[in-house]
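Proteins fold reproducibly. Next comes a concrete instance:

***
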Amino acid sequence: MWRMPLTLALLFCAASVCATDLPFVNWENHPIHALDRSPNGRMLAVAHTADQRVQLFDISSGNAVAVGHVAVGVDPVSVRFRSDDELWVVNHVSDSISIVDLSSRQVRATLTTADEPFDVVFASGKAFVSCSQVNQIQVFDLADLSAAPQVVEIGAEDPRALAVSADGSTVYAAIFESGNATTILGGGLEDNIVAIPNAVSDPRGPYGGVNPPPNSGVGFEPPVDPTATPPAVGLIVRKRQDGRWTDDNDGDWTALVSGDLAEASGRIVGWDLPDRDIAVIDAQSLELSYISGLMNIGMALAVNPLSGQLTLVGTDATNEVRFEPNVNGGFVRVKLAQVDPAAGDKQLVDLNPHLSYSQPRVDQAQRDLSIGDPRALVWRADGARGWVAGMGSNNVIAIDASGARVGSPIEVGEGPVGLALDELGNRLYVWNHFEA
């Protein structure tokens, strides 16, 4: 019989004693589409991730009346009604979808998916499921759920939120970790290794091999202590609109990234970095294309029902900016992107226009106006008004058709991650993930 070593047993006891003094913590994932209304508008479904179930509310009276729940898989992160009596629930950890019969309050079928599914939508007689870990969209035939799903391979990292065009012909997938056209040049190693040469120290670079390179003209901001010798470092560079790869001091590293000296940074001539923010899938043929140049963390996705424009909210980082205090309080922006899928026109909106980012701290009144970590987005039927939930700021903001903010933030509970709009009842429902 195996016996636990005494030292290990003592560690377990110590940990258990400590744990009794701490509040319980759930390690569930953040939902992607936490709320959904039935097509007839009478029922509201909630993906209660921590409790591994779906909560149901009758909202026909204008108030949410609890009418039961259904146990589903582990970490339900998305709920979508296929009909008034059929609800699909995406279980992120279970790698499955629970198909719930609303009349009986039971799971009538379970579909196995690829690793870490996040969302599901319906178009052209198919169910499209985003599988984030394997970078796939799985496509199930709704007429034959026993058939193996077709697979659309996504050439980007972590597809999550899904949306369908107004005419139902196109499915869109937001890329959670899409990148923002930045890459790193090696430079902090004493000796070159095959994969990461010390490109920053290369004398053919824009600073003649000076490492660390200056970030303010020929000098540094903040200034370098004259008694200290700063260590050699790597360097993040960003691809600009004109195709050049530059640092935060406008030093041009293009030759060492993609030009005739690309080998010096471990790359090849013509090297490039795809910036794929939204995957665009033809619902019939499953042909794939991408929309680029929006932001690097795509969190929530919706289609304006009137204009047909695609709306993405998320964050974008200025990760090429170096040194404290330069990055203090201003290293990320909360963005909204409006895209005309037909014309390809794109418009980017800063959802915190009251912030100048010229100073690292602002007073509390300005902070209270801000939205952080946007996780949900919903449009009114006329497309003239929408709402965005800020998980990191515990509020909801209203936007107009262009994506510009309207009015003051609405304070809600902790961690709002889901929105559902009942226009006839004049209600906007908000799921507060942390507060349950």
Q: What stands out?
A: The radius of gyration is 25 Å. The first strand starts at residue 35 and ends at 37. The chain has a mean pLDDT of 92. The chain is about 5% helix and 40% strand.
